[in-house]
Predict the structure.
Amino acid sequence: MIAFPNCKINLGLNILTRMENGFHELETFFYPVNIHDALEILPAKILATELMVTGINAGETENNICLKAYRLLKKDYPQLPEISIHLHKAIPLGAGLGGGSADGAAMLRLINNKFNLNIEENRLFGYASMLGSDCPFFLINKPCLAAGRGEKLTPLAVSLSSYKLVIINPGIHVNTGDAYQGIKPVMPKKRIQEIIMQPTATWKAELKNDFENSIFDKHPVIKNLKEQLYSEGAVYASMTGSGSTVYGIFKHNINPQFLSGTDYFYKIIEAT
């Protein structure tokens, strides 16, 4: 059985408060994007569950979220057999695109369906929350306002289907924990839900990502990419999540000559 987990971008991201448990309360808008990994589960080749990772960022597998998802379900469903997992990565890691979270959510669904566990949706969301704050979104996989740590989700009818997206990752790995060190929580004058329902042309002036200032200071190349997207005519451009990926929303076709000669990961895709 195979799945093709897709990534997401954040349309705005506000860090509101630091909670007593040490986590930060945030608000953001998750938008699914058609860049996909491939995840397959097969009968075990040996008497143990194993994972093979290919594609970009292939390497150490022991702490991979797909294995964590399998082990999480195995605790409650000991009848689960050993399996062989193949994950082919096309979504950059540590990039603010949620590729790891998408893989984890897809693994939960694959196991649930493959082995007829009949886990109800709300319980599946509970397992996803244990894996990571972004994981529940990928079970819904529709445009959603996110609150709390990102796990409180409200689907909203927001569409970018008339636009093209340019997604650029310069190969810089941003540690999320480190990114939070540069954040001073503040309540915005205008909330993301209100801004996101306005015409896209108004977003540039009002829709912000609170991680940008500290990340741009550490990695000016990311700031430069955002500025270049605007110079190419983007209606809106931003860093997604805690970086390092940036994206631009365009009404027209774009040929990003400024990327020639770089080894940056980039995609030009139709928004859905």
Remarks:
- The longest strand covers residues 6-18.
- The mean pLDDT is 93.
- Residues 70 and 107 are 7 Å apart (CA to CA).
